[in-house]
Design brief:
The complex is a heterodimer of chains A (135) and B (218).
Chain A: E1 2-8, E2 11-16, E3 20-25, E4 31-34, E5 38-43, E6 46-52, H1 53-56, E7 70-76, E8 79-85, E9 87-93, E10 109-114, E11 120-124, H2 126-134
Parallel strand pairs in A: 2-11, 6-8
Antiparallel strand pairs in A: 1-2, 1-9, 3-7, 4-5, 5-6, 7-8, 10-11
Chain B: H1 18-28, H2 37-66, E1 71-78, E2 81-86, E3 90-95, E4 109-115, E5 118-124, H3 125-128, E6 141-147, E7 150-156, E8 158-165, E9 170-171, E10 185-191, E11 194-199, H4 201-206
Parallel strand pairs in B: 2-11, 5-7
Antiparallel strand pairs in B: 1-2, 1-8, 3-6, 4-5, 6-7, 9-10, 10-11
The chains are: A mainly beta (135), B alpha+beta (218).
Chain lengths: 135, 218
């Protein structure tokens, strides 16, 4: 599978490249809140729900927040959402490994893969994340 | 084929001549004429018989060791406490490496690591058993367990040794309140002055409180 690796704090997650539409640097004036907590971002003539991966995966930030965070627009099951990440790390071919073989299903995660340095990176379940943006 | 090999007719010209070597080549291409192949084919069933004999001897030796009541346990330390698990559940022991965190998992599940291409969850037993804060040093090791068809890694403070226990060294488990359910403890192993808490690791790892295996509700 073709994957795009994104960084959140010191963690690395993989997005299936097939579901990535575009990515852009966040301009603070394009992000608006709805109802106090829900955030949307304006992409050209469309408003997309923002899914902050730092909050979804409960990442403990060790340093200051990035100056220029990146949003990755993904599309799954006809829904679009903008994932807020720290940085884009790169693109690579990944082998999808099953998490359930030795563990269990994890929400918002579709599987895992082994990176070049031998570490495990989790593959995001874009469909679940896009639904999360909607609710 | 010319000339017919059985007719006694040979090419007029000797070896090296085109016609002569062609006749030889033709003969070599007819494998049924090579008598040397036949004894080798006869040898095949013989080797199969030898293999069966070896296998049956192995089975006899295996059934003999089952009758003994000695059980081997791998002893390891968690803080000041010493535990023992059935050595047959242990696949390997490796040094600790930082796992990849899994979001929203209980604190004792440290994450997953890559074990030769297999994704293996890592559980910190010191956190599971509510011991004082677990730190990671040169002695911290991961015991890789085979639980059914699953592979699970378990972080412990140190591995001490492998202990063989006789049935009379296994003491019953007293009733008490602890972070370990008492039905997950097989027995208390008494070795001289040491006290080993013998854990039924298979039962513990597959229990719902560990959350390692999907609940049947889903």
């Amino acid at each position: 599978m073709d994957g795009m690796s994104v960084g959140v704090n010191n963690e690395c997650y993989i997005l299936p490249l097939a579901s990535v539409v575009e990515s852009f640097q966040v301009q603070s004036d394009t992000v608006r809140s709805i109802g106090g907590s829900g955030q949307v971002v304006q992409v050209r003539d469309e408003y997309l729900p923002v899914v902050d991966l730092e909050k979804v995966f409960d990442v403990q930030r060790s340093g200051p927040a990035p100056v220029k965070p990146v949003m990755v627009v993904v599309e799954a099951e006809g829904r679009r959402a903008a994932l807020l990440v720290d940085e884009l790390l790169g693109q690579q071919q990944v082998v999808v490994k099953n998490l359930e073989a030795n563990y269990r299903r994890v929400s918002d995660i579709s599987g895992a893969t082994i990176m070049g340095d031998g570490r495990v990176a989790l593959i995001l379940d874009v469909g679940a994340l896009a639904r999360r943006g909607r609710t | 084929v010319f000339p017919d090999p059985d007719s006694g007719i040979r090419p007029i010209t000797g070896p090296g001549c085109n016609a002569y070597s062609k006749w030889h080549r033709e003969r070599r291409r007819q494998p049924w004429r090579r008598a040397t192949h036949l004894p080798r084919k006869k040898g095949e069933p013989m080797s199969v018989q030898t293999a069966t004999a070896t296998a049956s001897t192995g089975a006899v030796a295996g059934s003999g060791s089952v009758t003994t009541n000695l059980r081997e346990f791998l002893a390891f330390k968690l803080g000041a406490e010493e535990y023992g698990i059935d050595i047959l559940r242990v696949q390997e022991i490796r040094s600790y490496e930082e796992p990849t965190r899994i979001a929203n998992a209980p604190g004792f599940i440290k994450g997953v690591v890559n074990l030769r291409g297999v994704i293996v969850p890592i559980i910190d037993m010191r956190m599971k058993f509510n011991l004082e804060q677990a730190n990671y040093d040169a002695f911290t090791v991961v015991i890789v367990l085979n639980i059914g068809s699953r592979v699970v890694g378990m972080v412990v403070d140190a591995v001490s040794d492998v202990i063989t226990l006789k049935p009379d060294q296994l003491r019953p488990v007293p009733e008490f309140n602890s972070s370990i359910a008492s039905d997950h403890i097989l027995a208390i192993g008494a070795v001289e002055s040491r006290m080993l808490i013998l854990v039924d690791i298979e039962k513990l790892m597959t229990s719902s409180e560990m959350g390692l295996i999907e609940d049947s509700v889903h």
